[in-house]
Amino acid sequence: MTANPPSFSSFPPSFSSFPDLKAEDESSKEKEEKRKSKRVKDEERHSSRHHSSRRDRSRSRERHSKSQRHRSRSHERSKDSKSHRSRHHDSDDSRKRKRKEHSPSRKPRDIDADYEYLSRKSKQRDKDLDTSGAMYESRSRYDFPDDVAQSAANLFIEDGKGDEGNIRYGGLHRYAVPKFKRMGYGTVLGVPDGAWRLKPSGPNVELSLKKQVHAPQLSSSKWSSYISSIQPRRLTAPKHQDQYSEDSGFIPLPSTRVKQSKEPAYRSITAAEADEESDASSSSSSSQGGRHSNASDEEFTVPSTSAFTERNIALTQAIKSNPTSASAWMNLLRHSASSAPTQQARAEISLSILDKALEAHYSNKHNPAFLCQYLLFGSLIWPQAKLRDEWEIAVKKVEIHRRDLFEQTTLWMDYLTFKLKDSGIDGLQEAVARVWQAVTRAEVAEVFELECFKLRVLWRCCVGLAEAGYTERGVAAFQSQIELTLFAQAEYKSKTFSQNLESLEEFWESECPRFGEVGANGWCNFNPSTSDAQPAASAKSPMQEEPRLDHEDPYVKWAAAESFRDRTGRYPLRSSDPMSDEDPYSTVLFSDIRGFLYNPSATGNEAKILLVYAFLQFLGLYFPGLSAYLEEQSSPVSTADGNQSSSNLDSIWSDTRFKDPSVISSVFFPKRTSSSTHSLTDSNAPNAIGKESLNDSQQKSGFGAVKDWRWGVLTPLQGHGSKGEGRMWEADVFKIIDTLFVRRVFEQTSAKVSSAVFDEHWLAFEAICNIKSAIKLSRRMLQNDRDSLHRWASHAKLERIRGKPDEAVKIYEACLEGTSLGANPRKNNSETLYWDWAQLIWLSGGRADVILLRAADMSGGGDVTVSSVSILRAKKKLDAWIEERHAADEEDGRHVLLALVNIRALLELLSGDLTRALSIYDKVDPQRFTSSIRTQRLLGEMLAISSTLLAYYHTTGHHRSPVPPSILQGHVSTLIPLYTRNTILLGVWLESERGESVWGRVKSVVRDVILGDSEAACVGGWLWAIWQETVNWAWEVGRVKGVLSKCTESERSRMSPSLWRIAIELEFHLNQLDRAKSLLFRAVGECPWTKEFYLVAFKLPLRHMFTIKDLEQWSNTMLERRLRVRLGLEDYSDAVDGHGDDGSNRDSDMQGGDDELEEVIKERLRLMPY
Fold first, then answer.
1. Quick one: CA dihedral 956, 958, 959, 963, positive or negative?
2. Rg (Cα) of the chain, in Å, rounded?
3. Residue 598: is its pLDDT beyond 80?
């Protein structure tokens, strides 16, 4: 009987698998059976070449029995074929003759055998397939041997490393040799093996028949009639359209394989879509057919073991769930760009991701978070003209859509920096005008937050003016704004802002004493009728002798004199001063600063005091965490977990404490001893090989001059030591501070605003100048406010700093006599005093437990008796008070809560061990204390510092029972990732690592944790990383260069003049002038508005690296960019008489004599404002 025709739903169509409609003769069947049995014998002979002869004989008997079965089957088919031929004898004979005429040399094929084999294979597949998804079931392309098909492990090759080119570029280069060859490479689905060949043709692949292979069945009319007789079926789309949705460039397909064990989810290795501009190999993007054939190869997959890929999939899924989430896109951006080796590669990857982010949703196109990053990375690769156009488009988008102002703050601050870099001072004035327009249009309910943003804008403009050489204008802008805010006139609120500015201009032009100057009474006390009086004297900088250089080079002399004038001429002069005629920029008109002033809206004292703090930091008195606090208050709150340190992008321009070369040398590159010179020479390599042992004589203290922490965590008089060591300000970095002017700023502000916190900052400043004068000042303050426990606590800290703890104990006893915490802790606020007293006694080696029990009201009106019962009762009382403070939800009560926790932890330490004492801090939950996220982070950092210092004092002090150093080391190591910018914690951590044999743990933490996110790392973090590498100067030169190289290549910190100055000074100390010259050019390219960089080219030791012609070009560039030049270079360069480096004479270059000299003078007069 004739077999049923095959069904196309049971197996994939193949040209070699279609059966003939008529049977072949018996001879062809027998020959085909012999050919198959011979092939089986060859395969078995090759697979069993190493087996024993006995196993060979057994397999021979099996083959013999198998051949007998084949002969019986052939005999039965022969009988059937004879009966069939009797009915169709004539037609079969004629058909045979025609076939022999066309192909006389071709051997006849047994089509029935092929048909039966394919039928059995199709039925077996139908049993295994799931009937619900029959239309999209995956098929195997290859017929593998049985032993290989049974063991799936033989089909895979696990490569844990993978190919970096595929991960980075998405595919191999067309000329790259693959590491592995795919199973079935070179074959085509549905085409018999050996009959066709694949020929590469450019980006495509050609499929052609081999010359020695003939396939007459392709042109047979029977095949055509058979195909046309089959009833067609419609291929309908699946009901679920997202069944095969794309996932990170891959399409997951169902698998027919029965999994033997639970394995992780795999991804099929599918080829990427063809890209005309891609250099991927032809095997991955060869043709359309190649891409579709890979879809059916699902069961041959390789597990994805790369953590990078798994992280990338998770981030992509987060973006799909919320395409408007800026944080999700930024996480993907940082993760994708982390594998890029160069800055340009990171910028290109980041821009490609940001392009997709801007197109993902309509609201993303005008989202300031995306626009900031887009412009930031675009500035690395775009030309200046395109960058200027992109900035203009971004600003217009923000102005049109009018989003929340606090979402735009980072964009506006970056816009100010861009305009300063692009157009200098003129561009800065244009940019600040647009910022004030945006502030005026915005409808903001948070007055204090808005005031913080206005202060940031003013501060940024003043710093830019000072760096360009216009220090007097920056000081004048701050003075005018403080007059507007602190010393406003009575009728200020009834007038418009323009009217108030006109009134303030009258005050300014009268040249009466201004804020910070001698005899200043404020704008509120100004009487216009006395405006014709004699103008007051200008503020003077500390008198310094102008340096006298023995060097004959006039350019060196000019640079030294110009720098001296910059240091001494900080304050605006009056028109009556003799120096004002020589330098017109020294006299500041009100029209020069009018555009930088803003209308103050906050009436509280905090906003006013923050303005004065910013002015003091502008003058050189650094406040740790101030710029970060202002940025945090005027920006949206981030609820992301992880690092609890606030963002401090403003530190790039606000942190100017290490801009003086003398300060840089004393802090980062101190003088080396003769014993360390040899080690320095041996350690110039970037990587030190071998064991690095650090003992106490080689290593400095872990607490240095670089200090940074969150605003409000520590008081101004609080440090890491019992005598205030490591507090906010110390005398080692105040070599260029005008103490007289700063003291007047504190004095005039304190008279206008009554604040114990501000007065404590004043006392901290006086303590670094003269501790005795600070004590006298504190006593005068106590005379006016004797009931303030805060002022008494400050006075006791001054006594401790002076080295008289007994005087501090007398203050504590007098203030806390007859007082306990149980009386009314919310009213008397004595918790802080009790904690300071107990800490002082404990560090001095006294009985601190008596003070703690007295604080817990265990005295009973008499002497305190220390016993286990009284200690237990005191613990219960303190726990109850802490719980009460937890439920109070009072942001201002965080200091009271902290003092209670410190008392409870110290009591536990004295009666137990260090581990139980540290657990007291872990029980405090900042989220229960307050609902404000900012206050929660502040309280968390305060608890972290207190617990760390408690463990540090206990570990380093002299106690009866020794403490394992691993407790302190483990505790502080868990806090470092949370508070990466707290130098107190970092100092304790360095101290805990002292004595370790290998320094590698410190290097890895600095690299991966503190500087892990180079974009988010603030200048304080970079400075601390540089400083800690110089802790062992003789060993860390190469690593200092590595940190400096990383920070100068970072996307944001590369715009910090302070970091560039440190990098240049390092090369000076190493006497590598070529590298210093290269860094100088890079610094000018990134910060073209910084005048100090231009003067470096004229100074020693870099002067001899430039010719006279080069220096003339430097001078012309300064004039073109409108940088401030106080002294004329021509007054010094006229002395050059043919001894230039290049042998040229300046006089010979100026052809025309007096005529050209007049042209130069006219040009300089044109550039002047008057």
1. positive
2. 42
3. yes
Contacts of 862 (CB under 8 A, 6+ apart): none
Residue 56 contacts residue 48 (beta carbons within 8 Å): yes
Residue 121 has pLDDT above 90, yes or no: no
- Element (H or E) spanning 347, and its range? helix 343-360
- Please state, in angstroms and as integers, the Cα–Cα distance from residue 165 to each residue in 170, 177, 276, following that order: 7, 12, 18
Highest-confidence range of 634-638, 681-685, 872-876, by mean pLDDT?
A: 872-876
Q: Looking up tokens 């601390």, which residue turns up?
A: 1024
Q: What is the residue-wise DSSP string for 870-914?
A: HHHHHHHHHHHHHHHHHTT--GGGHHHHHHHHHHHHHHHHHHS-H
Residue whose C-alpha is closest to residue 251's, from 273, 278, 275: 273
| Position with higher pLDDT, 204 vs 1118 | 1118
> The tokens of 689 are what?
């090989």
Name the percent of the chain lying above pLDDT 90.
Answer: 40
Of the CA atoms within 13 Å of residue 1071, those in its CB half-sphere come to 2
- What pLDDT shows up at residue 109? 46
Tell me how many degrees the CA angle 489-491-496 measures, rounded to the nearest 5: 105
Which tens digit of pLDDT belongs to each residue from 20-54?
A: 444 445 555 566 666 666 666 665 555 545 444 44
User: 308, 342, 327: which is closest to 1051 by C-alpha?
Assistant: 342
At 504, which amino acid appears? L
- Counting other chains too, the contacts that 30-35 makes at CB distance below 8 Å and 24 or more residues apart are 30/74, 31/107, 31/108, 31/110, 32/108, 32/109, 32/110, 32/113, 33/70, 33/74, 33/110, 33/113
Residue 252 token pair: 């997951």
Q: To the nearest 10°, the Cα dihedral for 699, 705, 711, 714?
A: 70
Q: Distance (Å, rounded) from C-alpha 65 to C-alpha 73?
A: 13
End-to-end CA distance of the chain: 114
**Segment 803-857, tens digit of pLDDT:** 999 999 999 999 988 776 655 444 456 889 999 999 999 998 888 988 998 888 7
Burial of 983 (0-12, 13-18, 19+ CB in 10 A): buried
Q: Buried b / exposed e across 3-15, counting CB within 10 Å, b at 16+? A: eeebeeebbeeee
Q: Are 1091 and 467 within 8 A, CB to CB?
A: yes
pLDDT at site 670: 78
CA dihedral 907, 909, 913, 915 (to 10 degrees): 110
Q: Label residues 736-773 b or e (16+ Cβ within 10 Å = b).
A: ebbeebbbbbbebbbeeeebeebbbbbbbbbbbbeeee
| 1156: its two tokens | 């050209």
CA distance 362 to 353: 16
* Higher per-residue confidence, 1088 vs 55: 1088
Supply 638's token pair: 């981030």
pLDDT in tens, 235-276: 666 555 555 555 555 566 665 554 444 443 333 333 333 343
Cα dist. 579→538, 565, 574 in Å?
Answer: 11, 11, 9
How many Cα neighbours within 13 Å face the side chain of 1123?
A: 25
Which pLDDT belongs to residue 82? 43
- The whole-number pLDDT of residue 887 equals 65
Higher pLDDT, 66 or 1065: 1065
d(CA 837, CA 814): 12
Contact 12, 135 (CB under 8 A): no
pLDDT, tens digit, 9 for 90 and up, residues 910-930: 988 899 999 999 999 888 887
Contact 482, 613 (CB under 8 A): no
> In b/e form, how buried is each residue of 1037-1068, taking b as 16+ CB within 10 angstroms?
bebbbbbbebbbebbbbbbbbbbbbbbbbbbb
Helix (H) / strand (E) containing 116: helix 111-128
**Given the structure tokens 């309509």, which residue do they identify?**
362
Q: Are 1071 and 1080 in contact (CB under 8 A)?
A: no
pLDDT at 218 over 70: no
